[in-house]
Amino acid sequence: MRKRATIVCSVALLLAGCGGGGPQGSSDSKLSGDRIVLGVLNDQSGVYLALSGTNSVKAVQMAIADFKAKHGGDAITDDITVETADHQNKPDIANTKAAEMYDRLSVDAILDVPTSSAALKVADVAKEKKKLYFNISGATTDLTGKSCNKYTFHYAYDTYMLANGTGKTVTEQGAKNWYIVYPNYAFGQDMEKSFSAAVTGAGGTIVGKDATPFPNDNFSTFLLKAPTLNPKPDVLGTMQAGGDLVNLVKQYNEFKLREKGVDLSVGLMFLTDIHSLTPAALAGTTYTDAWYWNFDAENRAFADRFLKETGSRPTFAHAANYSAALQYLEAVQAAGTDDADAVVKQLEGKDINDVFLRNGKIRAEDHRVIHDAYLAQVKPAAEVTEDWDYVKILKTIPAAEAFRTPSADCKL
Amino acid sequence: MSAFLQHTFDGLVSGAFLALLALGLSVIFGMLRVVNFAHGAFYMLGAVGTYLLLTEFGIPFWWALLVVPLALGAFGMAVERTLVHPLARLDPLYNFLLTFGLTLVLQDLVKLRYGTTSSPYGTPSALTGTVDFGLFDFPAYRVFVLSFAVVACVAVWWLLGHTRVGMLVRAATERPELTRALGIDVGRWVTPVFGFGIALAGVAGVLAAPMRAVNPLMGADLVIVVFAVVVIGGLGSIFGSVAAGFGIGLVQAWGESYLDQWPIVAQTSVFVIMAAVLLWRPAGLFGREEAPA
């Protein structure tokens, strides 16, 4: 496929060079197959359906529409389509689907891919096929660490950003003593390490930490233990996600830990989680958000369009999918070709501001996309006046502080 | 001391769920010789049904506690008549596969309608407080769950021990051939007993809705532990499953609180105990070696 693209490109260049007077060969001849195909590979039936899933496909379609509207007749091509597949959060399925997207469906760039293990598999495929890959919903820092490669970009967030944002900021704001519970698998263990480092780095103390079974429906042992620890923790940091998080929060409220002076901080939480738990159950909880739909007028305008398309407000993953698709198309437009190496060159080191990326920059060293992050707190039920407007932003964490410095493990 | 009592109480509460589920499984196995793999799915339906009653019809928790088990019991009887019964004469493996398949179907139906994210369900307003036991206090709802489960288990025990129906069921459970030989129509009781077992799973599901995540997979994870409980107590032994249910709840709670340096030990304790019991007493702690038919 690439070979053909190269031939097509060189022929087009030759014609353009010799032809002289003729109409500048329409630029789409520099595109493989004369078109651009984006691939959204994510969970479309399981636990991550709501937070990204099929609505991210719609977000990508919105980006395509905006790109076309902006460039009109000057757009590199009018033929931009989206392919989509369900990887069921399984690495092996992600692997096959990604290869199929690149090879058979002529996908130029794959987007999204939640679940770290699946995210890493797709990075390998992107490297092997030399095609672009924007990971959005995966959390592992390995994507920009030991598993980084030239064609992979990590867009929205990672475990370091979450732990650093919440752990460091909350500690600095006075909650010195932490009790951490984490699910006993890769994501949870990663999060616990990053969190403990962030808390102690900011002058806090980990007074206790416990690995919990995964999945687990009964957290009462840990919740009973929390207020009895010495010194008493100011905050319970939970690294649970999905159904486990729901279990933990319900039981946190049952045991009235907030009333006992133990606040709640959540490692990773999406808007859709707050929606399903109800803001009342989470009132006062702090967490790090990569983007919030009601942060300013620009975000809100996007969220209004998204609501019209999907019936719900966007999570940060939806907004990030939109942004990544848009920035990819812009890079192709600027490069005048969809040749992966040329597009990577366009993207590397680029400063970007768009609806999702504030003070954004695509780091050339490790392909980490850095941008402002936000420390968010769930509003008390009485202050929730609008559906989906559940949090207030306590603090904007500047892009340069929000993410870790490029890792020495990453050799692009 | 107060911490120990708290953990003990907590263990009894999670044991209550295990006991209710194990009791239903045991009654069904005893009467039908069917290992009902779909038990966790029925538990899930109990919780989802509770949520559905509130959101679709505005019916609160207390009515759900009555309506959901009855509805699930009826549904269970229909399942027994239409699906389980026709396979009863074949190898037990067929019903095992049937109920396993049924689990997947039920889970996916709920998934289709509600997705996999958990649905919100609050604690009933009368029970949001805590109860002060002097040495420690405990969420009121959990106190209610434990009392309700204990009452339910005692009621079942009384029903089985002191009524004519109960005696027939016990006889049919423990010596099915002999009971038949005495001219008792065991078949008549098969469908209601199956429905009853499912209704118990429904009760556990309703009780779970306010304190656990309500989603299609909530039963899938729990049912594995319940099977371990039933094996430990002795398949088909009514008393055994209840005792093992509460016992395992305690072991888990104590393990998690006192072996917290070794989370793996606490998390696998149930299965280690199961393996040990199987080696020592293959029929379970309270089970009886099956009499050759």
UniProtKB/TrEMBL annotation, chain A:
Domain Leucine-binding protein: 36-379
Transmembrane domains' residue ranges: none
CDD domains the record matches: PBP1_SBP-like (cd06327)
A Pfam family hit: Peripla_BP_6
Keywords: Signal
Record family assignment: Belongs to the leucine-binding protein family.
Protein name (record): ABC transporter permease
Organism of this sequence: Asanoa iriomotensis
UniProtKB/TrEMBL annotation, chain B:
Transmembrane stretches, start-end: 12-31, 61-80, 92-110, 143-160, 189-210, 222-250, 262-280
Domain of life, per lineage: Bacteria
Keywords assigned by UniProt, alphabetized: Amino-acid transport, Cell membrane, Membrane, Transmembrane, Transmembrane helix, Transport
Species per Swiss-Prot/TrEMBL record: Asanoa iriomotensis
Membrane topology: Multi-pass membrane protein
Pfam families: BPD_transp_2 (PF02653)
Protein's name according to its UniProt entry: Branched-chain amino acid ABC transporter permease
Family classification: Belongs to the binding-protein-dependent transport system permease family. LivHM subfamily.
UniProt-listed InterPro entries: ABC_transp_permease, BCAA_transport_permease
UniProt-annotated location(s): Cell membrane
This protein's record includes keyword Transmembrane: yes
